[in-house]
Structures are given as structure tokens and as C-alpha cells.
Amino acid sequence: MIINFITRLQSLIRYQLFLRGLVFIYVGLIIILPLSALFWKVTQQPLPELFPLITSNIAVDAYKLTFGSALLAAFINSIFGIILAWILVRYDFPAKKFADGLIDIPLAMPGVVVGITLMSLYSPGGVIGGLFEPESFLGQFLQQFGIEEVNLTASLIGILLAQIFVTLPFVVRTVQPVLAQFDREVEESAIILGANSWQRFWKVIFPQILPAVLTGFSLALARGIGEFGVVFLISGNIPNETLMATVYIYQRLEQFDFAGATAVAIVLLILALLLLVIAGMLQKWSNRYNHNSLEIF
Fold it and tell me: Does residue 20 fall inside a structural domain?
């Protein structure tokens, strides 16, 4: 018996070591190796040559626009993502499954297709953009306030709308299962103790879904920072105004400036990882807070 037990234990340990090794090899080949190659490429160039490329006015404005719009889009989708997840979980209505399936469309559509779709909607000749044409009623009304031309595409508004579109599913899909598994007895206890609807949400429900919200926010932020196809078509790519960092990298590559493109890509990667680490720390803090806090009010 003892020999058989030891033999099975050794087999189990070997099996676990094999699985762990397989995981590390796969992650190393798919993630670590490409990132290492990117950093190695940067180290081949002298820092005095790369620093002006990284800190140029066009690059800095591209960083600000990329991270600023991604943060704002992730924040907006965090709010409306909670609302949509709440409606899909707590209420029944006709075509609910169809509405639930629509949430995943931004994940299934290629970026270029999304860009063309939004261009047909918000461009000057589009369905909504055409309403702001100078000869239209709304355009003439805006001209009375000194607004001669409104272009929803080559502007911050167009970029923000595009990033909101592509990052919408992340918060919804992370919050939705947490709400579905929420213990209704806890909420009923709060009702018995006299809590109103706002108190039940902010002091009972929201602390439980906060880690999921932060996870969805992090995913939405990362997707917004790395988006290329949609913003390439809808932003207009105007330097110092609507030029995104990903598009700026592409322009550097088109000009065969591989060193400049790689340097800007490294900055984008480091800042994105830093934001994800901060979001992860906030998520751990919220988990610890939920476990340590026992008071409802």
C-alpha cells in the first residue's frame, strides 16, 4: 500500500510539473519572447538618439490623446456597463437574448469594419454627421453661435465614440456573471433592516461587484490604448490634434523609421502595463475591503 501510494504521488508530481512546464513554455513563446525582442531592439539604439523621438511634440500629444481618450471611454463604459449588466440580469423583456447577443458584436467585428461603420454614421456625409452640414437646419443654427463646421470624425468626439464602441463589452461581461450569482438573501436582509434602493446598491451590491468593475475597466482601458483599425479611419490622423499613438507608430514604420516606431511602442507598452498594475492593485484592495468589512451601513 505504501509503495503504491508513493508511486501514485510521484506520478502526480511529475504530471503537475509537466503541466507547469507546458504553461511556462507556451507563455514564454507567445508573450515573453516577443516582448523581450521588442526591448532588445530598443537597446540596440543609443539613448541620445531615441530620446528626441520619444519626447517629440507629436509623440507626447499622441500619448496624451491615446491614454486620455482610453481612460475616458473606459470610465464611461464602466458606468453604462453596470447599468446594462443590471438590466440584463435583473429584468425580463422581449428579445432579451437578442439584446444580450448584441453586446458581443464589437468583439466580433474587425477594427476596419467598425471604422467604416462609424464613418458611415458620423462622417460629414453620414447619417448623423450630415445633420451638422452648413446648409442643414442644425448647421445654420450653430452658425449663429460662430460654429461654422462640425466634424465628428476628425475630432476627439469621433475618437471617443470609436473607443466607447469597441470597449463596451468588457465591463458588461465581467459584471454580468457576478450580478447573476449575487445572493439575494443579503439584499433581502438589507431591506428588512430598512435600507432603501440606493443604500442597497451602494453599500451591499456595489462593493461585491467592484472587483469585476475594475477588471472590466482594465480590459477596456487596454483595448482602448491598443486600438488601431477604428481610430486609423475615424480620427483623421492630424498631428498634434487627432493623431493616436498606435497610428503614429504605423506612420513611423511607413517612413522606415523602425527605431522611432519601436521606441514609441516601448513607451506605449510601459505606460499601459503601469496602468494595468495600478488597476490590479485597486482590485486587490477592493477584495480585501470586501472581506474585512462586515457592516452594511
Answer: no
Residue 148 C-beta-side C-alpha neighbours within 13 Å: 0
Average pLDDT, the chain: 80
Return the closest-CA partner of residue 189 out of 203, 172, 171.
203
C-beta atoms surrounding 65 within 10 Å: 21
From residue 197, alpha-carbon distances to 92, 184, 206 in Å are 19, 14, 12
Residue 72 buriedness (CB in 10 A; 0-12 / 13-18 / 19+): middle
- For residue 109, is pLDDT > 80? yes
Q: Which domain holds residue 173?
A: 48-292
Residues 174, 176: Cα–Cα separation, whole Å: 6
Residue 86 has pLDDT above 80, yes or no: yes
pTM of the model: 0.81
CA 77 from chain centre, in angstroms, equals 9
Q: Could you tell me where the beta strands, DSSP code E, fall in 98-213?
A: none
Asked, for residue 35, whether it belongs to a domain, the answer is no
190 within a domain of the structure (yes/no): yes
Dihedral over alpha carbons 148, 150, 151, 156 (to 10 degrees)? 120
Catalogue the E-assigned strands of the chain: none
Instruction: Find where cell 500629444 sits.
Output: 61
What is the C-alpha to C-alpha distance for residues 1 and 180, in angstroms, rounded to an integer? 47
How many domains are there within the chain? 1
In a domain, 64, yes or no: yes
Q: What is the pLDDT of residues 262-290, one digit of tens each?
A: 888 888 888 878 877 877 777 676 666 55
Element counts in the chain: helices (H) and strands (E): 15, 0
Residue 75 has pLDDT above 90, yes or no: yes
Distances (CA, A) of 39 to 34, 105, 255, 256, 261: 9, 34, 21, 19, 12
Asked which of 115-119, 123-127, 171-175 is least confident by mean pLDDT, the reply is 123-127
